[in-house]
Amino acid sequence: QDGAPSHMAAKNQKFCKDNMAHFWPKNFWPPSSPDLNPLDFFWWGAIESKTNRTPHLNLDSLKATIIKEWDNYPEKHIINACKRFRPRLEA
Question: Backbone dihedral region of 55: left (phi > 0), alpha (psi from -120 to 50 degrees) or beta?
Fold first, then answer.
């Protein structure tokens, strides 16, 4: 969550709470920060550089490429990024 009004709307918060097993409500999640959000600031940047190498003619093509890159992304890179998450919270 990044504090955008669309993400903080009561209706969206309720939907997430009702449908996600490990949902963190808006008052629990820290503000958006490169140090606290490895998937937004690390993973998306790495994937974007791969998915944008060639133009996509439609949304389905882009989605398929994102899924392919996620499936092929080295698991150790994701694990390492996530391991650095807790120390940043505790700093």
Answer: beta
Q: What confidence tens digit (pLDDT) does each residue in 17-54 have? A: 899 988 887 777 666 666 666 676 777 888 888 899 99
Q: How many residues are there in the chain?
A: 91
| C-beta of residue 90 within 8 angstroms of C-beta of residue 36 | no
Q: Is 0.85 topped by the overall pTM?
A: no
DSSP labels for 55-91?
Answer: --SSHHHHHHHHHHHHHHS-HHHHHHHHHTHHHHHH-
Nearest residue to 67 (alpha-carbon basis) of 80, 79, 81, 56: 56
Nearest to 4, CA basis, from 35, 36, 26: 26
